[in-house]
Design brief:
The protein is mainly α and 399 residues long. It is built from 15 helices and no strands. The longest helix is centred in the middle third of the chain and has 33 residues.
């Protein structure tokens, strides 16, 4: 495959996640009322998706190491498209939760294989740069998703907002079937056998480099998930923002994230991976702590959340490509397994956030602002300690 096909494949495979989680957010309060469901049940449509996404990664990673990326991608994307159609047609909140859970499980194939492809084709230091290019494209998708979701929900209803991922899934499936070539150099016949699988998990989980990068990814994604799971209720229900206005707010956040991925590439070339992450920790901490401090000071306004969130998103655009490339870097022979375990850690972080928000959203800004502030402290701590001590020396060299 040409580099352009590789990057476009990664954009589509990784972009399926914000399409699945971000696009329906403006419709979440609407479908909650339409299906006569409590807020906690509406939150479950996101939490169930994340739970199944995390668990399925543990299966998809070894399957992709055993049989190759292409067959796992084709099966997963086909199932994702079907589940997306069923979600849009769900007659009740219960059915919607079930179909969203299936959607999350199928999405795991796309995301896990996307992260694995980086290690199949590139050395770790170059993989971080390629990942940042792909995540710049993902940022464009993330920018468009809430705006499109807001427009669809406002003019066509929440069913249309949930049908859009089915269209994206079908288009991605067609592109992968048409242009994607297998990237696994040698399939690992023992990847799915229980004994070797458990040994692979153990060797990955014990590796200090994996622990550092996986922890960074989990904390930074946890802060993002506070925004994904709680922001529609805070901005629309608490602060009175329109659905389209909320979509614009999320677009601006995605723009800041995209700028972060562009900054990441420049910093990697001049500073190396560990110093780049240290700089990102400053952005993240500054944004999260400022947001929390403003809310505690009684400043409950849209700008008091949006402006600090831009700083957090800028840092997230640095941490996410570095964290994902760093976690699989030491494991060229079992990149799928390492990617699945790193993704599972991010999922556990998101799950904890979603379940907590489902119980504590109370008509104020505090669950959102204080949660992001706490995650920012975790990100900065890991970026300035574990990553600096345990990052592989090869990661610090500019290619």
């Amino acid at each position: 495959m040409s580099p352009a096909v590789v990057v476009l494949s990664l954009i589509l495979l990784l972009g399926i996640q914000p399409v699945t989680t971000d696009l329906y957010l403006p419709a979440l309060p609407m479908l909650t009322r339409a299906l006569d469901a409590p807020v906690s049940a509406a939150q479950l449509t996101l939490s169930a998706l994340i739970i199944c996404f995390g668990l399925a990664q543990l299966v998809c990673g070894p399957l992709a190491d055993r049989f190759g990326r292409r067959p796992v991608l084709l099966a997963g994307l086909a199932l994702y498209t079907v589940a997306s159609v069923l979600s849009a047609l769900a007659p009740s909140i219960g059915w919607l939760v079930w179909w969203r859970a299936l959607q999350g499980a199928a999405m795991a194939a796309a995301v896990t294989c996307g992260r694995s492809i980086i290690r199949d084709l590139y050395a770790p230091h170059e993989g971080a740069r390629v990942m940042s290019r792909a995540l710049s494209g993902l940022g464009v998708i993330a920018m468009a998703s809430p705006v499109i979701g807001g427009l669809l929900a406002q003019h066509l209803g929440w069913h249309a907002a949930l049908m859009a991922p089915a269209v994206f899934g079908a288009l991605t499936l067609a592109f992968i079937a048409w242009r994607f070539d297998e990237t696994v150099p040698v399939p690992n016949a023992g990847a799915t056998r229980l004994g070797p699988l458990l040994r692979n998990w153990g060797s990955v989980l014990r590796h200090p480099t994996f622990q550092a990068w996986a922890a960074l990814s989990a904390f930074t994604y946890g802060g993002l998930f506070f925004l994904l799971a709680g922001s529609s209720f805070v901005f629309i229900e608490v602060l009175g923002t329109s659905r389209v206005g909320y979509g614009v707010i999320m677009l601006s956040n995605s723009l800041a994230y995209t700028l972060g991925t562009l900054l990441c590439r420049r910093l990697l070339a001049s500073h190396g991976l560990r110093r780049t992450v240290a700089v990102g920790g400053g952005f993240t901490l500054g944004g999260g702590v400022t947001m929390a401090a403003l809310s505690l000071a009684g400043v409950h306004a849209v700008w008091a959340i949006v402006l600090p969130q831009w700083l957090y998103a800028l840092g997230h655009g640095i941490h996410q490509p570095c964290g994902q490339a760093g976690a699989v870097g030491p494991f060229p022979e079992k990149a799928g397994t390492a990617a699945s375990l790193s993704g599972f850690g991010m999922t556990l972080s998101a799950l904890a956030v979603g379940l907590w928000l489902g119980k504590h959203l109370d008509g104020t800004v505090y669950p959102l602002t204080l949660g992001i502030g706490l995650c920012s402290v975790g990100v900065a701590t890991v970026a300035w300690t574990l990553v600096q001590r345990h990052g592989e020396p090869v990661f610090a060299r500019a290619a």
